[in-house]
Structure prediction request, 466 residues.
Amino acid sequence: MPTDRVWDALVKAFATQMKSAFTASSFVKEIFTNGYPKLYSMMENLLDGISRDTDVKGVLPAITLEGKAQMVAAIETFQMAFLGSCLSRLSDIVNSVFPVSSRGSVPSKEQISRILSRIQEEIEAVQLDARLTLLVLREISKVLLLIAERAEYLISTGPEARQVSGPATAAQVKNFALCQHLQEIHTRITSMIMGLPTIAADVLSPSLGAIYGVACDSITSLFQAMIDRLESCILQIHDQNFSALGMDAAMDNNASPYMEELQKCILHFRREFLSRLLPSSANATTAGTETICTRLVRSMASRVLILFIRHASLVRPLSESGKLRMARDMAELELAVGQNLFPVEQLGAPYRALRAFRPLIFLETSQLGASPLLQDLPPSVILHHLYSRGPDDLQSPLQRNKLTHLQYSLWLDSQGEDQIWKGIKATLDDYATKVRVRGDKEFSPVYPLMLRLGSSLSETAAASQK
Prediction:
């Protein structure tokens, strides 16, 4: 058709002129490159206008989709240059803030703000065009990966970064600042793309994930060291005498030595480390948002409760006075964690387990099987506690396998409830064999209870995990 030939000639002429403008005139090249969003918008408006003005019923359109694509392709050189300039501008500012040559210094808040402002400007320059916005976001994604790479290079490692006994070291303070900067970048970029189509989040997801990962890496080793220290305090529960009898033991209102040590450590961690990482943690929690640091603190608080319940359930023997002492220790723990780590009411299952375990230890063995408290406790905790009510020849898995409490705790971390039950079941079988060999006619009341609870609770736990 004549219109096709005219259009082909027009496109070729336009493409030639654009190519010439790009190569022959640096002035025109700069104008069209920097103003590419406007150039592209003008092109779209022109093509839309032609389509609209030639839209006659029963007549083929004057310009096809292929024709439109050819015209857009004619200015693609400027698009590539525009995106290259965008990447160059952002990379330059990142390189100035995170120079390769300077491993020791962490950028200031102002420098991070400059990067974020520049990124926001790049997004705002193209936000009226969805296609161009996605292309710019791909360049921003490259820059975020560059930031993650440079930031990872700045992380301090080694003993100074992991120590938890003294004041925060220079290495730790540096890691704290790095973590907060990366958290700020992650939060701000996420908020910038909130109003954009979901595909925008998909484009930036890998690079934002990299930023988040490096932020976590900067403080994860410290949090692990804090958890290890708190577990070492909790392990001392096994050095405490919970089998003492008499009124003196029952009336002793002092916290157990291990609990005092645990409280001191938690308070020290709060003052030296968490206060620097969570300057506005209360506000963050109230606002319903969770930063990297609050997530790690919440995880640590949950872990402390889980470890305490685990080791408390392994205490054996446990007298009535010992139960009172343990209940006081649980109250002290709840207070220490809630005031210095994380609101315990927001910890979910670990907190419910702590609240359930306290009254459970005072139940008669005959009442325990039908207690609703069992619903809030892991089966292994209930079964481990029942050993404290059984005879000496009913050995726990820990005793049977000649493990330390720490070794057994590490094993429990790596096993599911079904595997733990298998270990417990083996001890029950051993006990039953001993009773039969002796010719005894009765088992301890905990034996049938443990068999019944172990089977039913493990089945329930397995079903809930599917």
About this structure: Confidence is low (pLDDT under 50) at residues 281-288. The chain is about 75% helix and 0% strand. Residues 98-218 form one domain. The first helix runs from residue 2 to 24.
